[in-house]
Amino acid sequence: MQLGILSPTYQFSQIILESTTSKEDVIKYYSSFSDFIASDFIPNILFIDDALIVFETIKKEIRSVRKKSSEVKLVAISESNDIDYADALEEIGFNAFLLNNDFFIKRLKKCLNSMRHNFFQLNASTEINDIIKGDSEEIKKVFEIIKKASTTKINVNITGETGTGKELVAQAIHKQSTRNQNPFIAVNIAAIPKDLIESELFGHEEGAFTGATKRRLGKFEEAKHGTLFLDEIGELSLDLQTKLLRVLQENEVTRIGSNEVIKTDIRLVTATHKNLRNEVFENKFREDLYYRLLGLPLKIPPLRERKGDIIKLAELFIEEACNYNKITPIKKLHADAQRKLLSYHFPGNVRQLKSLIELSVIISDYTTIKAGDLLIENEEIEDISLKKERTLEEYNIEIIEYFLKKYKGKVNFVSDKLDMSKSKIYKLIQEKKLSKY
Ligand SMILES: Nc1ncnc2c1ncn2[C@@H]1O[C@H](COP(=O)(O)OP(=O)(O)OP(=O)(O)O)[C@@H](O)[C@H]1O
Fold this sequence. Notes:
By secondary structure, the protein is of the alpha/beta class. The protein has four domains: 2-120, Rossmann fold; 125-301, P-loop containing nucleotide triphosphate hydrolases (Rossmann fold, 3-Layer(aba) Sandwich), CATH 3.40.50.300; 305-379, Helicase, Ruva Protein, domain 3 (Orthogonal Bundle), CATH 1.10.8; 392-431. It is 45% helix and 14% strand. The protein has 19 helices and 16 strands. The protein has a five-stranded parallel β-sheet with strand order 2-1-3-4-5, with helices on both faces. It has a five-stranded parallel β-sheet with strand order 7-10-13-6-14. Helix 7 crosses helix 8. The chain is globular and about 85 Å long. The protein starts with a strand and ends in a 6-residue tail after the last helix. The chain binds adenosine-5'-triphosphate. Adenosine-5'-triphosphate (ATP) binds at residues 132-134, 160, 162-168, 231, 273, 313, 350-351, 354.
């Protein structure tokens, strides 16, 4: 990603250099707007030190920046925690506001990561199938629901096993909707310490509790006019469920330690891998909140139930990993490797497929990824033996192939296990073109 820094001092440049996590980033530093406008560099994000923000001239300067690049994201960095100031900058056209306080580096990292994520995965295209890959019938049904959700304001509740692409689907809904020029804010409830969730969602005032040294906007405010994605909603405690319900009913939020009521305008997308209905039965989730969140339910099938997507996704991840690691030509997936992927049940779904492929790209020699390069933990090959009707010979072949995979092609082990002669196994391997790995 290309990052530009506008600051009268070199200090920000250093901090941003330290915070950036990707070696691919190109960072350029400018000490004034005119230097920046005069250069050929087109950044994806421009960080602007508010020491350079003079309200009499800033609108004109932002217009010139936008003329140079209409896509550039503008991030103001300021020591002032004045909310009116932040609002005013937003009105002028800034995309984000970062407070230069004790948490600055942490927030900067988060901001960079989220913008990088948006830049590569979201802004690249607004087309659903450029964001979510796959063309199985099952995923096409998901695309249909995304389209329906995008044209309305309805809340959406996404369910699916871990790694099925729930966050990606939430992004696609946002990107397809009329809110796509406004923020997409994702919060994983399970990843936040319990006593910080309330302030993370609803914000707090300075001094509201020990450690609240500065005012902080909550995610409901950050997602203004955009989409708020609450992942792992089933992890929310009962008292916060009550608070969330109130916010959703009244479309208003109050920061901790404040009496000021702030209007919210968000589309809420929630996700969970839990069965929320069961949680309601077990009194762990409020029924009234459940119905409010449910809106349009969208279930993403696990990867093993949309095998039609496995090879397409694998090839996409190979291409991405080869490009990222500057490996040419793009590696191919051997037929044995394809069979191995198709017979695996992927408990970690697309995320697992992606990391499996990324590793295989690195460890495979030459230009082809073979079955042995796919390091599936515990080698759990799916037991499909009884799902389809077969002849006895077909069963035999399947069993032999299963053991060949299990013992990594070592025919003497398989022969011992099945009490079958090695020569017979070799003959079958040749005749039936059995996969040894
Ligand atoms: N259909 C898809 N096309 C391309 N990439 C995908 C697809 N589905 C998932 N991914 C990728 O797989 C990874 C996991 O996706 P994501 O984080 O959206 O899953 P999740 O269901 O939200 O996971 P969790 O439940 O663990 O939060 C991400 O890197 C995502 O980009």
